[in-house]
Write a structure and sequence with these properties.
Number of domains: 1
Number of helices: 1
Strand order of the largest sheet: 1-2-3
Distance between the termini: 45 Å
Length: about 100
């Protein structure tokens, strides 16, 4: 099996793209009034971004951190016979959930 070639990206371009994505995520969270979001980017065998924005508990104004765990879940509709692209302006295609709390 032939290996897929990696895109030719320099570290500066990757750092700029990740910084932009982090700012965009923070803006979209506020704009869509989502209590909190976490994101991570793994590139070239390294964690390039680990970020959290918003609140883990809105009522207590407890900030969300990268050390808090989330359940992995999907709130997407059932797959249609025809593939659809993800529209990031809609939370329907993303997994927005509350932090997992140990029992």
């Amino acid at each position: 099996m032939k290996e897929t070639p990696k895109p030719d990206l320099d570290p500066t371009s990757v750092a700029q793209a990740v910084a932009y994505a982090d700012d965009w995520l923070a803006f979209r969270r506020r704009y869509l009034r989502i209590p909190g979001v976490q994101a991570a980017v793994w590139y070239d065998d390294a964690l390039t971004l680990s970020t959290a924005h918003g609140y883990a508990d809105v009522e207590r104004e407890e900030p969300l951190t990268t050390s808090q765990l989330f359940r992995i879940a999907s709130h997407s509709p059932r797959p249609s016979p025809r593939p659809r692209s993800c529209n990031w302006s809609s939370a329907a295609c993303c997994a927005w959930t509350t932090p997992a709390v140990p029992s």
